[in-house]
Write a structure and sequence with these properties.
- Helix 1 packs antiparallel against helix 2.
- The radius of gyration is 15 Å and the shape is globular.
- The chain has 2 domains: 53 residues, Orthogonal Bundle (Hypothetical Oxidoreductase Yiak, Chain: A, domain 1), CATH 1.10.1530; 32 residues, no CATH class.
- A hairpin with a 4-residue loop joins strand 1 and strand 2.
- It is built from 4 helices and 2 strands; from the N terminus they run αααββα.
- The protein has a two-stranded antiparallel sheet with strand order 1-2.
- The protein is mainly alpha-helical.
């Protein structure tokens, strides 16, 4: 069976939403998994989905957690993921790094 990358991403997104993830977080995770496979990084691609679902079921991934900025210094910052999806935190960190920081996360330290 052949499935387009768009259809695969939609399937992953809907599956994560069905397991309680926010639509925006599910989209980030799905895009990252498919993107990895499209670039040959199969070990970080769609093959991780069953493990993610197991981790959600066991409470190891908190689908409601949102990354938050906990430390902001002139040359560094730190984001706490609170057991949420790593790709969501990574994308927020990347956005902060290029946007002058504190624009999309609240500082709590």
């Amino acid at each position: 069976m052949t499935v387009s990358h768009q259809e695969l991403g939609r399937f992953i997104r809907e599956l994560l939403i069905a397991h309680g993830a926010a639509a925006s977080d599910a989209a980030i995770v799905a895009e990252g998994l498919v993107w990895s496979n499209l670039r040959g990084g199969d070990g970080h691609g769609v093959s991780r989905l069953p493990r993610y679902l197991q981790m959600i079921a066991r409470g190891e991934i908190d689908v409601k957690a949102q990354p938050r900025l906990v430390l902001d210094r002139p040359a560094t910052f730190m984001i706490e993921c609170d057991h949420g999806f790593g790709p969501v935190a990574a994308m927020q960190a990347a956005a902060l790094a290029v946007s002058g920081r504190k624009s999309s996360a609240s500082a709590s330290a």
